[in-house]
Amino acid sequence: MIIVLRPGASPAQIDEVIAEVKILGYEPSPIIGVAQTVIAAIGDERTHQNLESLTALPQVESVLRVQKRYKLASRESHPANSVIDVAGVPVGGPQFTFMAGPCSVESADQLFATAEAVKAAGATILRGGAYKPRTSPYEFQGLGKEGLRLLREARERTGLKIITEVLSERDVEHVAETADILQIGARNSQNFQLLIECARTQKPVLLKRGLSERIEEWLLASEYLLAHGNPNVMLCERGIRTFETYTRNTLDLSAVAIAKKESHLPVIVDPSQGCGRADLVIALCCGAIAMGADGLLVEVHPTPAEAWSDGQQQITFDGFRDLVAAVQPFLTAVNRTA
Amino acid sequence: MIIVLRPGASPAQIDEVIAEVKILGYEPSPIIGVAQTVIAAIGDERTHQNLESLTALPQVESVLRVQKRYKLASRESHPANSVIDVAGVPVGGPQFTFMAGPCSVESADQLFATAEAVKAAGATILRGGAYKPRTSPYEFQGLGKEGLRLLREARERTGLKIITEVLSERDVEHVAETADILQIGARNSQNFQLLIECARTQKPVLLKRGLSERIEEWLLASEYLLAHGNPNVMLCERGIRTFETYTRNTLDLSAVAIAKKESHLPVIVDPSQGCGRADLVIALCCGAIAMGADGLLVEVHPTPAEAWSDGQQQITFDGFRDLVAAVQPFLTAVNRTA
Amino acid sequence: MIIVLRPGASPAQIDEVIAEVKILGYEPSPIIGVAQTVIAAIGDERTHQNLESLTALPQVESVLRVQKRYKLASRESHPANSVIDVAGVPVGGPQFTFMAGPCSVESADQLFATAEAVKAAGATILRGGAYKPRTSPYEFQGLGKEGLRLLREARERTGLKIITEVLSERDVEHVAETADILQIGARNSQNFQLLIECARTQKPVLLKRGLSERIEEWLLASEYLLAHGNPNVMLCERGIRTFETYTRNTLDLSAVAIAKKESHLPVIVDPSQGCGRADLVIALCCGAIAMGADGLLVEVHPTPAEAWSDGQQQITFDGFRDLVAAVQPFLTAVNRTA
Amino acid sequence: MIIVLRPGASPAQIDEVIAEVKILGYEPSPIIGVAQTVIAAIGDERTHQNLESLTALPQVESVLRVQKRYKLASRESHPANSVIDVAGVPVGGPQFTFMAGPCSVESADQLFATAEAVKAAGATILRGGAYKPRTSPYEFQGLGKEGLRLLREARERTGLKIITEVLSERDVEHVAETADILQIGARNSQNFQLLIECARTQKPVLLKRGLSERIEEWLLASEYLLAHGNPNVMLCERGIRTFETYTRNTLDLSAVAIAKKESHLPVIVDPSQGCGRADLVIALCCGAIAMGADGLLVEVHPTPAEAWSDGQQQITFDGFRDLVAAVQPFLTAVNRTA
């Protein structure tokens, strides 16, 4: 780390900082500049204490990190792309992955019809929420275990693999009995206890980026999964919170390229949450593929206008067929098969 | 709700929307405007389905809510200020509350010395983290149960009440045995399962605002606690995430006035997290009191430069004494006692 | 507009609002809801006064707009794509446009070498700043008129058209003598006097989106150009300011699709400013094309490490050749020629 | 500056960076760390070129600044508070300043009545916009020169000093004939040519913070005024753009304390723009004073519901009297006279 001292720090004050750097286990290397002194603290920032606490001293202006904070998630530690095996479906390899299905599981009819439709159009993984994190306690909270049962039945009927969200540490075990991928939602992206619990299952985990999570923090959240022994991690960009009000969130497609550059983990894009509007979904899917995404997670519903949650961002069966057709030229452009 | 149709929507398209509004349980009232038609949907928005799903129809431009989404947290439902009884210490009444202590519980010496110092300066509630949500898995995660034991001993020694954070649903029960206030951190502000679990304990809960949580969403999160039967809720503003980099977060003091206006719940301000810099803490405390805060949650450490977490934002014992002295004129200005 | 009254507004208070709505020139249409009354105010929102002022009345909770605020920029007013004639080079039609060149004009050698290189790679328009808006007054402010002279000479040598930024109303006239496109930078996106002055020249104008400008506001800024009689307007997405720190700005590629949907104006993407890092430029260009952009504005420099401004985001001559090659498959995918 | 090299940079690559650092005029001082090498570049960052361009080299991971970028605006360069003489009214000294008046000058009656009312309540400076920067070209743009004439007449009638906004470089000279303070609005905060033009007049200038301007950038914008020879600069916090939608902007009161700490310039707070809602204005004024503001800029109108611009944030004459009374205890708390 680099400790920047205020202009005019006295020799005694500089010595005090040097002494603290030693106490905290780093080797200090002072550099006397034209206007200010800086002290380079040599040592592994990931195994020693963070020196930012030194800004508590009045003569310290700021502390700058040098090293990256994530290890196992980094491209340096694992140069090749990780390919995750989702019950036989590879994610992150040359084949592109379509995950699709309703926001919430509402009924057998709704789920099975959607599963058939998305399978016919080219999806290999079925999404559907049985536990729903809703902003208001008065909104539909999901069918729970009955929803999981319907998801299992949909898998039996279609062969599609299942991705479904888990909200509670206590649900991880039984959700993992149904799910082929455990989905961690944006609001739980830094719910570290939930991450640790999911890591224990060894099931593939799709980790959504938090609403205002920096990319570094997102990779550090994935590091919780990896460091607790689960290498089967997929990242999912689903829009960040900005000042813009035209869309519900601002899908950060640059984050796809950055995550692929910094990390070896597969990156999935959720355009439905990303914009919150059905009319932009296809365009965002084209952009996501061009930016290097490994797959898409798309909300599809038989009659979006009557959906029990987030109807405004769900597309119809026809819409999903159109989407898969529309993205083909971009899959060709990136040399990927569907 | 108000459904805005696109310019040029045909009579058949208007009728389709009117029919959907009826299906979803509202009474439609169309208004033909100069440029566009709008349909007012009459009905209780809190007990009916959200009509935003209608924007899935191509002729619908947007859907505007009319009603507020929170009920139990609202000033309308409870015009008087709520005063929470924290094991005999009232929060939210005429008496102003100082909560202070270290970011993390590190050792008996550190905790007990801090407890004595903050008590001597005027605090009535001791803060201290036993479970720490850290951005990186390689950072200090808290002393856990040993930390809770030390907090209990500090209470016995000083009589201070205890506020400590709970991260995991599975910890709620045993943390509640120690804590007089369960603290929900910013990253868990919309961890609804954790909120529901905390509600069950009937213990006072301090609910921090999420990093990018709108005030409406924060009040809806508090509504989860209230609707699950726990009226002992305090709100805590602790800084929001913005583009500014001078401070770690941007403390949103206007949120204090807004929360007091919209809600009857006590509002506490955390200036330490709010700015992430010890040198701004006193100024922010003065501002918080002027804006109507009911209390402060301040990080205090014997030697901040050597703290195991967030040293840069912790103040010394002398600093806390200075703080309590500095805010007195503002307590006088708002007619509150310390 | 829709005026939402507070729950419990009295009949006299409702009448007061109805009377104000009439005074302000709208026809009021009250709707009595279950919990609240709303008053629809019928009239053209673009030719009447904004009713948001009514929230100054205590019984008014909020005022919701119905109509879009932009007219000439809207797709409704001009369903076909606008194609701008830049001294013979069409922008916004089937042909895709590459604009490239240095951030700042530094010298004859630097500019002419860059012009030759970008022309050889496929660019038809040369960028180069003669007047630079710099955050600090101590940074290089551009070569001014000498820079313009060099740009004219580069045009004579290569036949490339010229895009260059104008900062000052007083410079508009003489910059327009050199420029084929007047560039309005992000910091001046709502400098309406500068926009009006540029409109007068009838020259094509490229209007960058402001750092925290909503898409509606960006289109309204373009409306200043259009309403002052200049139809030759191009929009340019160049990144918005968010909480993310990995990149200098967050390029909002969804804004490309939205601007194309809402408006008929060509949309150009500036990936260099958009991320502030040379290593992401190619990926962002691919994404921009997939999202429907009509052209790119790319910073290219002979030796970026020694550039007088923003070297970190400029690519080399080889880099630009690689970029043009890398995007070909995406141009094919969108059926555009280069 | 500190140049951080990527892990694994070769000796030749390190030498290349060292050579570039010398070319760019700094003295390099390499430090070999455990995981990475960093090179401290010794030299005055304000008089040399920015080394961030070195990140164009593949072996450079990042470049960290050490020095502050503003000089004349800094507390270090001028430890005492600057007190600005506004035609005899001191701003920034022990006396607190109330600036008040309508958003826009609408008529003689409106302006003179407001001037009398705010003077009677304690204001010494009258605000009123003659030139209005409006998001849409179809909104009221101000009375222009007739508005200035009315402001002069209001000054003659009441003795109040005048603050009014200037939008155009071409208007600076004639606006300065009327104004005692030239106001630079948030949208023009980085319109550097306008700042330079205002600097030339030697008139006091009130510089509003831009919608998404970092505090460092705001101080650098003030540095444009100072470096061009005008020391009569006041800063004005007026709310930043965030994700929050309850208010129009988020008033950043922490910025008041930071600006007072970093700089010697007076800091004024505009609560009306800051929240965009009349009902929060008084609370924000109390907070602003507690945080160390030197004055307030408040919008006051005879009948806000009928105001030609921003009625929702303007308060009545009675409201302003109440405001001045309400803030007295806080002025007492900060030892300031009104």
Explain what the structure shows.
Four copies of one chain form a homotetramer. With 338 residues, the first copy, chain A, is α/β, with parallel strands linked by helices. In chain A, 33% of the residues lie in helices and 18% in strands. Chain A has an eight-stranded parallel β-barrel, surrounded by seven helices. A four-stranded antiparallel sheet of chain A has the order 2-3-1-4, with helices on one face. Chain A has a two-stranded antiparallel sheet with strand order 5-6. In chain A, α5 links the parallel β10 and β11 (205-208). The first copy, chain A, is elongated, with a radius of gyration of 23 Å. Chains A and B meet through α5 and α6 of A and α5 and α6 of B.
Short description:
The structure is a homotetramer of 338-residue chains. With 338 residues, chain A is α/β, with parallel strands linked by helices.
H/E topology pattern of chain A: EHEEEEEEHEHEHEHEHEHEHHEH
CATH class annotation of the largest domain in chain A: Alpha Beta
What fold name stands as the CATH topology of the largest domain in chain A? TIM Barrel
**How helix-rich are the residues of chain A, as a percent range?**
25-40%
Q: Regions of chain A with pLDDT < 50 over 5+ consecutive residues?
A: none
Count of extended strands of chain A: 14
Shape of chain A: elongated
The strands making up the biggest β-sheet of chain A line up spatially as 7-8-9-10-11-12-13-14
Strand content of chain A: 15-25%
Whole-number mean pLDDT of chain A = 95
CATH homologous superfamily grouping of the largest domain in chain A: Aldolase class I
Q: Measured on Cα atoms, how large is the radius of gyration of chain A?
A: 23 Å
Alpha-carbon distance between the two ends of chain A: 46 Å
Largest sheet of chain A: 8 strands, parallel, barrel
